[in-house]
Automatic annotation (TrEMBL):
Region annotated Disordered, chain positions: 520-572
InterPro entries: DbpA/CsdA_RNA-bd_dom, DEAD/DEAH_box_helicase_dom, DEAD/DEAH_RhlB, DEAD_box_RNA_helicase, Helicase_ATP-bd, Helicase_C-like, Nucleotide-bd_a/b_plait_sf, P-loop_NTPase
GO molecular function term, any single one: RNA helicase activity
Transmembrane segments: none
Keyword ATP-binding set for record: yes
Keyword ATP-binding: yes
Protein name in UniProt: DEAD/DEAH box helicase
Pfam family name, one: DbpA
PANTHER family registered for this protein in UniProt: ATP-DEPENDENT RNA HELICASE DBPA, ATP-DEPENDENT RNA HELICASE RHLE-RELATED
Length: 572
């Protein structure tokens, strides 16, 4: 067996799940020096921690023959920071201890507390819950800790960050003397160290974070985009990868709500997870992801913690994580159990340097790529379609009805027509990719400069001696310019209305003709009086700067050089 140190029922369960070799953290907790001792384990998300502590406390739950200890009360207590993580831990321990007959009870916020109390009263071997709900059950006398042999703090650093210190201390103080305390945490900040000193005895420290840091099965990528193009980039990244399941991390509930709406409108099968969703809504969203009805999950950090989706292969950091540890926590949702995954950071132009520094400091190798444009997405679609259609056909699995349908199509249409219809049907169910050409800061600036109507690449600025103070408005300025200059409104470019004058662009090809005609029509009465039209050697920006300088000069009054000068002026 791959886990010979483990009790037979657990080893069999692991083998049936395809666990050939233990991960580094699982191997570490099974070493002889770790048996029976308090543990402080530093390990990254996705390293197999749940199975690790399930194996670590087996001696406190099972006898040498693999039978359950009969204590009349729970033997093990696992505390997790969120409902999702607690439910996931319960699920993992459920299959691990299935052959032992152990009962596992979940106690989390948002679920029916009466049903939880009934489960506890019926007799639970292992209890998994969140700090607040566990404390509530203890205070109400529903959770008996008198026979507790081991306590596990999963994601201990996160629980402290979320403000659960008081609840954790209350629970640990209620546990009996001599119980084991196992702390699992991605990082070991000072509060964790202090808690370890208070509640543990002769704890063995196990650090596997360095070996698993960066998740070798995760390919890190980053794209630099204009801040206004983040949603566009996300759409094309989703379409380019077409992952079976993807998760998009956002910083706020509002961002989750906004992006979820955008993706649904674009035709993506997306669900949302954030603090504003009830537990029932979260469960429905996760189930939709597991059974394939949804393929994209938009979530906040807290809501997504503990999610384990076997089909998850793509993580997109829509909003950048606050640090490298958060980045790895997020990215660790994919690349698990030997599966490959991709984590993509969407980086606004103005935050690229900071992001590069964070990645370099954390030792995370990241490939900077361009956002896939429409052409690249469609090319990927073609590749995926060909790969699917050119797969060998298992004749034994083809039903007679399908054969009849194929024969009918061949009789009615040519093979080429059938292929075209198939390609169209395939593309019709996919969201349309976005046009995305500006991939770098320089390219973006160049694209902005090139945003001109045809014929306006080379223009001349003209000046009209009326501005906002005389209620200048494009709606009556345009007809005047057309009449006075003998041109159409399509030959007038940008219009900039200032306080006392208006600047407008005329294509250089017609500028001379416009100026000549405007001079000939000078003196014509307009609404509000005669208006002067003339060439401007300097554009509106230059003139605005000159006006600003004049105003600053007029408003400038030198301050007294010192207190004595000021006093003299006051006394003069």
């Amino acid at each position: 067996m791959p886990f010979p140190q483990s009790p037979a029922p657990l080893a069999q369960a692991l083998s049936s799940r395809g666990y050939d070799t233990p991960t580094s953290v699982q191997e570490a907790v099974l070493q002889p020096e770790a048996r029976g001792r308090d543990l402080v384990v530093s390990a990254q998300t996705g390293s197999g921690k749940t199975v690790a502590f399930g194996l670590a406390f087996a001696d406190q739950v099972l006898g040498e023959d693999g039978d359950l200890f009969s204590r009349g009360a729970p033997s093990a207590l696992v505390i997790a920071p969120t409902r999702e993580l607690a439910l996931q831990v319960s699920k993992e321990l459920g299959w691990l201890y299935e052959k032992t007959g152990a009962r596992i009870a979940s106690c989390v916020g948002g679920m029916n507390p009466q049903a939880e109390r009934r489960a506890l009263k019926a007799g639970a071997t292992i209890v998994v819950g969140t700090p607040g709900r566990l404390r509530d059950h203890i205070e109400r006398g529903a959770l008996d800790l008198s026979a507790l042999a081991v306590v596990v703090l999963d994601e201990a650093d996160e629980m402290l960050d979320m403000g659960f210190r008081e609840e954790l201390e209350y629970i640990l103080d209620a546990t009996p003397q001599g119980r084991r305390v196992l702390m699992f945490s991605a990082t070991m900040p000072r509060p964790i160290e202090a808690m370890a000193r208070r509640y543990q005895q002769d704890a063995l420290r196990i650090a596997t974070g360095g070996q698993e840091r960066g998740h070798g099965d995760i390919a890190y990528q980053a794209v630099a985009v204009p801040p206004a193009a983040i949603e566009t980039a996300v759409v094309n990244l989703l379409r380019f990868h077409e992952a079976e399941t993807a998760i998009l991390f956002c910083a706020t509930r509002e961002r989750v709500r906004q992006l979820h709406t955008v993706l649904q409108d674009r035709g993506f099968a997306a669900v949302a997870l954030s603090g504003e969703h009830s537990q029932s809504e979260r469960n429905q969203a996760l189930q939709a992801l597991r059974d394939g009805r949804a393929r994209v999950c938009v979530a906040t950090d807290v809501a997504a913690r503990g999610i384990d989706l076997p089909s998850l292969t793509l993580v997109i950091h829509v909003d950048l994580p606050r640090d490298a540890e958060t980045l790895q926590h997020r990215s660790g949702r994919t690349g698990r159990a030997g599966r490959k995954g991709t984590a993509v950071m969407v980086v606004p132009f103005n935050r690229r340097r900071r992001t590069e520094g964070m990645l370099r400091h954390a030792g995370i190798e990241t490939l900077w790529i361009d956002v896939p444009d429409r052409k690249a997405v469609l090319a990927q679609d073609r590749t995926r379609l060909l790969e699917t259609l050119l797969q060998p056909i298992d004749a034994a699995s083809v039903e007679d009805a399908d054969r009849e349908l194929a024969d009918t199509l061949l009789n009615e249409r040519s093979p080429r027509d059938i292929a075209l219809l198939l390609a169209q049907a395939y593309r019709a169910k996919l969201p349309e990719p976005e046009e995305f050409s500006a991939q770098t800061v320089d390219a973006h600036r160049a694209a902005q400069k090139e945003k001109h109507r045809a014929g306006f690449e080379d223009t001349v600025w003209f000046r009209l001696d009326v501005g906002r103070r005389r209620n200048a408005d494009p709606r009556w300025i345009l007809p005047i310019l057309c009449r006075r200059g003998g041109i159409t409104r399509n030959e007038i470019g940008a219009i900039r209305i200032g306080p006392n004058e208006t600047y407008f662009q005329i294509p250089r090809t017609v500028a001379d003709s416009f100026a000549s005609t405007a001079a000939k029509t000078a003196g014509q009465d307009e609404k509000g009086g005669e208006l002067t039209i003339e060439r401007s050697a300097e554009g509106p920006r230059v003139q605005a700067r000159e006006n600003g300088r004049k105003k600053r000069h007029q408003d400038f009054h030198p301050k007294p050089s010192n207190r004595h000068d000021a006093r003299r002026k006051r006394n003069a």
